[in-house]
């Protein structure tokens, strides 16, 4: 059977993955054997999310009525019901449903009634608390399929420490990354010299190590010195797989979905208030604003170096009329030719513009010229893929170290 749980936390505390880890231990004690534990990320643009729009699915064998009772009791004991937007959902299904509902919740938006209808259709046991919105994530989690998968080892804090500062030795985390990268990733951001895998939010997570297998995340974990965790759980996950992306076309994008699309740079990139960089792309007469926000740090320099005519593939979420970039591929670079007034052939002095569309004029001898001088400038960027740094990475975004997306046909 599969057990799905979602929406148990609030900005003030708790975490659905922690509740999942607690439930796994309770199921063991109840004589129910547990197989794979899945941490399933859903559409990152959903407004109801507390942090990373995660849900949990536990594969188990045993009495489904008992499992359902244990899951409901665990939610009733641990979920942060005081949170105004905490609406837990619990699902138990005896066989995995088709993955359609998972893909809808991953790439699109769903209604609570869609989840109920799907759960009724497959004869699942389910319970929605408060407004029942958590049924969406719980139903999506039990419907999940993972054609590509990664792992995350999560270490959880002892409840008596939840309100205190986390004690994790940053040097040991850099050591862990050094010892296991590229088989683990995003524990630290080396370029920005920051630890990424220790949260600052008031939840039970002490740290989380992402990597390609339980062995690799376990090896990295072995390097880390910290306060004594309460427990640790390895989840299999769709994190770092780009599972949220839909092939798209400029002019045909829907709000709140995430796309991979092709275009050409249409105008010189601009840096706005707050250091956010925007660049317009065009394709087939339609244009699209792409954004590299300030938290994407050095990635903005890549965007600033684009010029009109560069052919690119952009990846990101379409929100408020802009594509918020997660990564970009420069396919071909336009030639960069700068124009400047020519040297006067009569007296050797550089001419000046004689006015719009009027050519150039020598201020010393009065000679005229029609054409400017052209200067080929070396481009300071190479074709290839570029991504935001680990500090700005979305959970679902596939780091380039795991491989690059297939390019759309143009
Ligand atoms: P955490 O990851 O820390 O557990 P969270 O960021 O996952 O928190 P939730 O508290 O689970 O956030 O809130 C997300 C809510 O949005 C849930 O009720 C979930 O069922 C719902 N939801 C998830 N995906 C979709 C979707 N595609 N359309 C509509 N609602 C969704």
TrEMBL record:
It comes from the Archaea. Keywords: ATP-binding, Cytoplasm, Ligase, Nucleotide-binding, tRNA processing. It is an enzyme of class 6 (ligase). Residues 3-127 form the TiaS-like TCKD domain. Residues 341-381 form the TiaS C-terminal zinc ribbon domain. Its EC number is 6.3.4.22. It catalyses: cytidine(34) in tRNA(Ile2) + agmatine + ATP + H2O = 2-agmatinylcytidine(34) in tRNA(Ile2) + AMP + 2 phosphate + 2 H(+). Belongs to the TiaS family. ATP-dependent agmatine transferase that catalyzes the formation of 2-agmatinylcytidine (agm2C) at the wobble position (C34) of tRNA(Ile2), converting the codon specificity from AUG to AUA. This is tRNA(Ile2) 2-agmatinylcytidine synthetase TiaS. It comes from Methanoculleus frigidifontis. The lineage of its organism: Archaea, Methanobacteriati, Methanobacteriota, Stenosarchaea group, Methanomicrobia.
């Amino acid at each position: 059977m599969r057990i799905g749980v979602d929406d148990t936390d609030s900005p003030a505390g708790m975490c659905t993955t922690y509740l999942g880890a607690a439930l796994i231990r309770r199921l063991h004690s109840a004589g129910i054997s547990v197989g794979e534990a899945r941490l399933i990320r859903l559409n990152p643009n959903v407004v109801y999310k507390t942090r990373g729009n995660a849900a949990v699915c536990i594969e188990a064998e045993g009495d489904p009525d008992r499992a359902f009772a244990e899951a409901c009791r665990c939610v009733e004991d641990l979920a942060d019901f005081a949170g105004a937007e905490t609406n837990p959902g619990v699902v138990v299904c005896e066989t995995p449903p088709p993955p359609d509902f998972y893909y809808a919740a991953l790439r699109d938006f769903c209604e609570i009634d869609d989840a109920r209808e799907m759960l009724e259709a497959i004869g699942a046991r389910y319970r929605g608390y408060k407004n029942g919105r958590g049924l969406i994530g719980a139903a999506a989690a039990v419907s999940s399929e993972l054609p590509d998968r990664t792992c995350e080892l999560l270490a959880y804090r002892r409840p008596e420490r939840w309100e205190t500062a986390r004690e994790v030795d940053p040097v040991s985390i850099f050591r862990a990354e050094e010892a296991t990268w590229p088989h683990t990733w995003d524990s630290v951001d080396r370029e920005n010299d920051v630890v990424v895998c220790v949260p600052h939010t008031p939840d039970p997570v002490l740290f989380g190590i992402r990597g390609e297998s339980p062995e690799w995340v376990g090896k990295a974990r072995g390097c880390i010195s910290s306060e004594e965790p309460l427990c640790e759980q390895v989840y299999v996950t769709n994190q770092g797989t780009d599972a949220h992306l839909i092939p798209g076309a400029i002019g045909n994008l829907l709000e709140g979905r995430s796309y991979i699309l092709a275009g050409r740079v249409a105008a010189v990139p601009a840096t706005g208030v707050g250091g956010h960089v925007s660049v317009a792309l065009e394709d087939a007469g339609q244009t699209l604003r792409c954004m590299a926000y300030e938290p994407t740090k050095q990635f903005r320099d890549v965007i600033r170096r684009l010029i009109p005519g560069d052919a690119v593939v952009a990846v990101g979420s379409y929100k408020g009329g802009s594509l918020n970039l997660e990564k970009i591929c420069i396919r071909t670079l336009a030639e960069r030719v700068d124009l400047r007034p020519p040297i006067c052939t009569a007296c050797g002095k550089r001419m000046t513009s004689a006015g719009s569309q009027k050519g150039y004029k020598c201020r010393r001898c009065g000679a005229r010229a029609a054409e400017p001088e052209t200067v080929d400038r070396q481009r300071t960027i190479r074709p290839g893929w570029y991504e935001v740094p680990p500090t700005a990475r979305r959970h679902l975004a596939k780091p380039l170290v795991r491989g690059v997306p297939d390019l759309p046909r143009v």
